[in-house]
Amino acid sequence: MLPYFFTPYDWLIFPGLLLGLYAQFRLSAAYGKYSRVGTQSGLTGAQAARQILDSSGLTQMSVEEIPGHLTDHFDPSKKALFLSSENFHGQSISAVGVAAHEAGHALQQKAGYAMFNFRMMLVPATQFASMAWMGFFVAGILLRGPMSHTLINIAIGVFAVLTLFQIVTLPV
Predict the structure, then answer these.
(1) N or C: which end of the chain has fewer CB atoms below 10 A?
(2) In a domain? residue 14
(3) For residue 129, how far is the Cα from the chain centroid?
(4) Is the distance from CB of 74 to CB of 105 less than 8 angstroms?
(5) Degrees to nearest 5, angle at CA 59 with 97 and 52
(6) What residues are annotated to the active site?
């Protein structure tokens, strides 16, 4: 039997959560598979990113190494591309693919791509939402009374911000 504070509306968060977990699983599996396959060119991720940026006239943009696993990102405020050590030095299809993906964001910024700009506006809210939604959700489950329902609804709303970010990110 369901606890009294859940409504059918509250359970809407689970399909999105499961879809997100599935997407993360697929991404990790594909990355792992192709991280063991070398490129024919022998280029590292850093070299591939540098070639893409240079050929697009972004010769002043730096490509830097950053610690962590899949911490790769383009920082438009620093006008720099950051690649995790494994992708910076790696000569795999995964390393070069991730580097090319991140370089693509730099090209989108250069072109003034509207969806990229909208996505970047959402980043601060998304950073908060990615940490906060679970706290609200767990607190809503653990507490009793009317406050539990309110906290779960807040969790759903905060999770909706993440969903919007993912939808905007698809074309980017």
Answers:
(1) N
(2) no
(3) 13
(4) yes
(5) 20
(6) 102
